[in-house]
Prior knowledge:
The chain is of the alpha/beta class. The chain has one domain (10-462): Alpha-Beta Barrel (TIM Barrel), CATH 3.20.20. Helices cover 37% and strands 15% of the residues. The chain has 14 helices and 16 strands. An 8-stranded parallel β-barrel has the order 1-2-3-4-5-7-11-14, surrounded by 5 helices. A two-stranded parallel sheet has the order 6-8. Strand 12 and strand 13 form a beta hairpin. Helix 2 packs parallel to helix 4 (100-115) and helix 12 packs parallel to helix 13 (385-404). The protein binds 6-O-phosphono-beta-D-galactopyranose. 6-O-phosphono-beta-D-galactopyranose (BGP) is lined by residues 16, 19, 171-172, 301, 320, 363, 367, 414, 421-423, 429.
Amino acid sequence: MQSKFPKGFLWGGAVAANQCEGAFDEDGKGLSVQDVLPKGLRGARTETATSENLKLQGIDFYHCYKEDIRLFAEMGFRVFRTSIAWSRIFPNGDDKEPNEAGLAFYDRLFDECRKYGIEPLVTLSHYEPPLALAEKYNGWLDRRCIDLFLRFAETVFTRYKRKVKYWLTFNEINALLRAPFMCAAIKTPKEELTESDLYTAMHYQLVASAAATKLCHAIIPHSLVGCMILGVTVYPLTPAPDDVIQTMLRDRETYQFAHVHARGTYPSYLLRYFEKNNIHVDMTEEDLKTLKNTVDFISFSYYSSICESAKKNAAMTGGNLSKGFVNPYLKASEWGWQIDPAGLRYTLSKLYDLYGLPLFIVENGLGARDVLIDAPNGEKTVDDTYRIEYLNAHLVEVEKAIDDGVAVLGYTAWGCIDLVSASTAQMSKRYGFIYVDRNDDGSGSLKRYKKKSFDWYREVIRTNGESLKR
Ligand code: BGP
């Protein structure tokens, strides 16, 4: 069958600085919130960075990036999504001057990408605000974080204006309401935060996102800026109207964020929610003007779907930050994330119907326990047929959405090289086309091996999707 993927479709892979770079205190880098979260997003924070945190070393991408990008180029990547660790550039978040060694690292990294014709797609904030912002400001509960973020954004836009065209502001911005320390460096325990606190922090990030979008367009006229949403896809558990209404309400928790970014205003249901619940958000006239700087595209992560119900007595499942009810029609990954390729088509179509902006799938993939085996050429490899099946099925659904008329800019498979998991901080939850020899106890040579999916993805990219099994 002839591929429906448009010419120039941006095929590639995605990582985040804190999950792969390591070198957590090298070349002047300050600590980020991730450096004190050794058990992942649900675990408790420690007072300072401890050696049990696998992220401190990551997969040593900070030193191995040349080898890794060469492997991405071998697969034919046209885009590589990563984040700039804010604390490499502004170690305390509020430093007057940026750290030149940190800036120089990303120069080298982006140059290496461009050498192979790979477009960098850069996330400004991927769950890694400087820890000092938590200590000194209580993070994004403080309005001054908007300006500090813009100082960071302006610095990197100016520095990389000839190297980076595609930018994302906040990774999975809607996660802030559930993980305020990790997303927004808010030190106060979540149980002690009021809804006014949480929505005020969210509002500050939305204003910062819009202001950064404006700034980016001014500094890099040909740039394209996107928001990034945790694409929680929700179905009613049954056709009971109460379940359908519950699903609609749950959907709004996700879509409200895309709405502000795409339309430049708060949706009326959210403003009413504030009013009815006595939620006071520190919102100025100036802020509302700033929000009018809307994004060029919407990006999102998609791993699974969940169900909603008005009755609260069914079995629960879900991804990192998205608990819901088990869908009896779907199987799940080893970590209980239900696998639903058609849900990706559904999500793409829904977002496009609502906002009409181009979409970018910037995370998708299967976390699995891979087993290293001997390869015929004397090397080692992984027979990850299960991953190929997962990715193939999802890409076929992306193609159907494109065929339906949805504008999709590209697809970056999550964790294209094995990295440390965000939710569990495990190394053994692997997503990559490239195996990294590192274990949960920190042992391993860090050597890279191509998995079976490596050749499979190379062929998908080479044929612009034609080789997919339909
Ligand atoms: C998303 C995050 C990523 C990534 C991914 C997979 O929510 O943006 O950083 O880690 O989920 O999750 P995990 O690593 O927990 O398997």
